[in-house]
Amino acid sequence: MTAQPLTTVRDATARPFARLAAEMARWLAGTVVALLAIAAVLVAWRRLAGALVAPLEPLQLLSAAALMAVTAGGARLARRGYSVGLKPSRSVGPLALLPSLAVLSLGAALSLPGTEGRGLAAFWSLLAAEECWAWWPIARRSLRRASATAIALRPLRSHPPEAPARQITSPPSDDEPPAARVLQQLTRSRASDGAEELSGWLRMEFSAGQRSGSVHVAFCPPFAKTPELAVAQLDGPEARVKTAQLLPYGARIDLKLAAAAEQPGSVLLHFSARSYEDRPG
Q1: Which residue spans of the chain are classified as CATH 2.60.40.2080?
Q2: How many angstroms separate the CA atoms of 260 and 139, rounded?
Q3: Which fold has domain 154-275?
Q4: β-strand partners of 257
Q5: Which SS3 state, helix, strand or coil, does residue 179 take?
Q6: What's the whole-model pTM score?
Q7: pLDDT of 73-117, one tens digit each?
């Protein structure tokens, strides 16, 4: 009987508790966001009804802004599951937008006429800083995905660098991402100058609790020499992509998620391997 590693047993034992803690944290985050939204509605209603007329002092404004920022930021952190080291939530739905709407509504309701300018500027600066912090990861992922798409679909540079760019006569038909059930989709093409290119899509599947893995692609028939390889992530949770091995007959690409997968999922890669010498025979 083969003994399982101690770390594997501990991970298998702790994983259900980590998921339960993450779910509880997200339920707590939803409750806090709901209370924040109710507070925003009540304060805005009192402002419209004329019950709020006396402007707040700068210290009161800063205290209110700090409380709002901590409440909204804490709710977002709990919802993402960072407290237990699980994969952050990537969805941008009503629950993600509600804290921002509540913070903006409260800020507008508390910005009364006659408020001191410096206090009001500090108040809105603190709220803006919290919102920028909250939305920056989403904006960064969108920018990275757009950049990865541009890199994956642009033609590779020629070899050697000083030579003019070589064009492939038959462009690959893999511009559109494949269906979710497709694990590999490859296209091999040849340019008029003899350069060969193998490009396509690779999907690496992750199970719940998994953080790292490898995906292999075979170059069949093999290239005459080790080709140039470009890889870009286009979909899936944030991951570090590394070419672990590159040979004339295939490649191994290692992936490591930023955090262990909370539920089964996959990472979609686009790759392109190009060689500038004809295959012998």
Answers
A1: 154-275
A2: 22
A3: Immunoglobulin-like (2.60.40)
A4: 239
A5: coil
A6: 0.43
A7: 777 777 665 444 444 444 455 566 788 888 888 888 888 888 888
